[in-house]
Amino acid sequence: MACKLLCFLLWLMAQLYLSLSGEMNSLESVPDLEKLMYVAVDGYPCVRLLNLSGEIGCSNPGRDKVVAPIVRFKNADKLAQPSTVLVSLNEVQSLFTRILNDSTYAKNIGGVLVESKADQNELNDFSPVEKFPQAEFAPYRNVHYEWNPIAAVKNEEAEKSYTTDVAEFNLVMQTTKAGTHDSKSCLKEGTCLPLGGYSVWSSLPPINISSTQSKPIILLVASMDSASFFRDKSLGADSPISGLIALVAAVDALSRVDGLGDLNKQLVFLIFTGEAWGYLGSRRFLLELDLQTDAVTGLNSTLIDMVMEVGSVGKGSSEGVNTFYAHATMASSATNQTMAALQRAQDSLNSEDVKILPANSSNPGIPPSSLMAFLKKNTTTAGIVFDDFNTVFANKFYHSHLDDLSNVNSSSIEAASTIIARTLYILASKDTNISNSTLAAINTNVSLVEELLGCLLSCEPGLSCDLVKNYIRPTTTSCPSNYVGVFLGEPSSAPYPGTVNDVSRFLWNFLAEKTAISKGDVISSCKQNCSQKDQLCVREKADGKGVCVTSTTRYVPAYSTRLKYESGIWDVLPADSSDPMGMLDPVWTESFWDVIGLRVYTVQDTGYDHLVLAGGIAVTVSAYVAIVVARAFITKALKRD
378 and 303 in contact (C-beta within 8 Å)? Predict the structure, then answer.
């Protein structure tokens, strides 16, 4: 028996040698060996965010790499050691609940890996935010209303193995410095930056800033930023990008209408950023209006007659019929006129395929939207939010990375854009009896909508699309993300292009050109050679060539109203009781972080190691016994001889 075990051990060693020699012959360098041993994993990180109360998100609590074995969430009832929990998207909410309720379990989580692939047909909904997002800013008392109901989750099966996959995280967040676990302390220590960016507004036709603006203003509002658990996977296709695309296409449609200078009211288009983080953009815009800064030259808050917001409009299509809902503020002549204009715009389509209905009167008020900031500032503001839902969100993936291109319908966006463009024309026109032929000429460019969907919501072509490259040189060629980002440099109404993200720069250039009343030829050194004060340089290329246009288009800084930038440092201002929205301001910041990396490799399970050790001991003992027996046998045989 001992001889058989010894022969088996020798055979096993020979096989192992042959196997290793074959692999070693294919390896020509240390990097080849590293590639064989380690698998680098691409993904989208969750990072650390801070506010005045504390911190959320993800980070490495220390300064070293985190190395932890991978276990499936459904198989890990208890964690005996720091582990990397592998969780399907269906199980994420269950994991969060377990972490909140089980401190021992939470303490042993070294990292979390979320499987990226999920079938939206199997996953009913996934929205890792509140049932009433940003309820603290609601202009009404019923903050427990569920605009965003969340469904249950499911589990799945897994297999056992004698090996363990280990995840090695390289994610160091600099706010781990002692005492920097909120926005105020990390800004003071210089280990974070405030969330924010640049909103964009434009008027059609341009406002003559040399004379006093007296026309009533109709504001058409949309948002350009979203949020999700994963920083760079915040697409927000339906909420809010479908509304942004509808607004941009409506501007394009109206720009082709003659006689806009004769309108009774001034059309102003306003696209906010930072709305997913405490309505940064709209609150800062309202403050800039109060202060009458250069960013809002030509605008006057007392002249705002109506605020119309384009919310989620990508899911209005059902069985060939596009249905939209108008969520109005308190009844007033302005809201009544707008509801009538929406109905007139619908009738002008001469189609049963588009319906516009008033939202249910049982709703507590308008849904989560930028209009809330306007109402908090002035409760008498007349406004309407134009959405694809009535009482609850139609978007089942609100503020989730699954709110992607597959979650919207282009025909729904096109129908919404045409309705909005015609409604604005009806509201602003002198003529109270506009002919159907005049309205029929105002139509959305379908190909523009399709292009914008590809540019803003898909990796191919993404921001490298021809439409965007026709206006700017994008700084990134990676998949688009509509996360707000952090505010870089000193706030300005004329910021250095390098401090403005690609989407804001594209929108500024696009709106400036579409709302311009006169356009020049392509010239060199466009910025210096635009002759008139109210001219802007658009489509400026790296060589300085661009086009001078007469347009009223501005950047508006979007960052917390509780922050002040001075001498290169951000300071948190004391709360002001006269500013109720400022009192609620969480002051969101993002920690500085180094390169985020993740690689996976396989190690033997400890149980298997023990088994190999026991087998080795058994083989050694057997070999010793075999030697002793053989020696005794040989000695006995020799004595006989």
Answer: no
Give the β-pairing of 321-328 and 354-358. parallel
Q: Give percent helix, percent strand, percent coil of the chain, each to the nearest 5.
A: 35, 20, 40
Alpha helices per DSSP H over 307-370: 333-348
Q: Residue type at 229? A: F
Report H helices in 388-444. 410-428, 436-440
Count Cβ atoms below 10 Å from residue 209 Cβ, excluding itself: 12
| Residue closest to 312 by CA, chosen among 285, 338, 275 | 275
Q: Beta partners for 486?
A: 195
Distance CA 608, CA 619 (A): 16
Asked whether 548 and 537 are in contact (CB, 8 A), the reply is yes
Q: Where are the beta strands (DSSP E) in 180-312?
A: 192-194, 197-204, 217-223, 266-272, 304-310
Rounded-to-integer distance, Cα 261 and Cα 538, Å: 22
Instruction: Specify the residue for token string 């427990």.
Output: 144
HSE-CB of 102 using CA atoms within 13 angstroms: 14
Contact yes or no for 199/268 (Cβ under 8 A): no
Q: Hunting for tokens 């401190």 — which residue is that?
A: 103
- Contact between residue 250 and residue 421 where contact means Cβ atoms under 8 Å apart: yes
The candidate with the shortest Cα–Cα distance to 463, out of 496, 499, 407, 502, is: 502
Average pLDDT, the chain: 84
Burial of 549 (0-12, 13-18, 19+ CB in 10 A): buried
Q: What is the pLDDT of residues 394-407, one digit of tens each?
A: 999 999 888 999 99
The whole-angstrom separation of Cα 534 and Cα 147 is 43
d(CA 340, CA 5): 92
Are 219 and 427 within 8 A, CB to CB?
no
Quick one: pLDDT at residue 153? 35
Cβ pair 202, 250 in contact under 8 A: no
For the ranges 54-68, 112-126, 144-158, which has the lowest average pLDDT? 144-158
Bridge partners (DSSP) listed for residue 537: 548
**Of 340, 183, 166, 274, nearest to 491 (Cα)?**
274
Q: Note the pLDDT of residue 381.
A: 94
- Compute the distance between CA of residue 459 and CA of residue 466 in angstroms, rounded to an integer: 14
| Structure token digits, residue 313 | 């409009």
Q: Find residue 580's DSSP bridge partners.
A: none
Contacts of 631 (CB under 8 A, 6+ apart): none
Sequence-separated (6 or more) residues with CB below 8 Å from residue 23: 36
**Sign of the dihedral through C-alpha 625, 628, 634, 637:** negative
Q: What is the pLDDT of residues 175-210, one digit of tens each?
A: 455 567 889 998 988 889 999 999 999 999 999 877
- Whole-model pTM: value is 0.84
Work out whether strand 266-272 and strand 217-223 pair parallel, antiparallel, or are unpaired: parallel
C-alpha span between 505 and 135 (Å, rounded): 31
Helix (H), strand (E), coil (C) string for 279-325: CHHHHHHHHHHHHCCHHHCCCCHHHEEEEEEECCCCCCEECCEEEEE
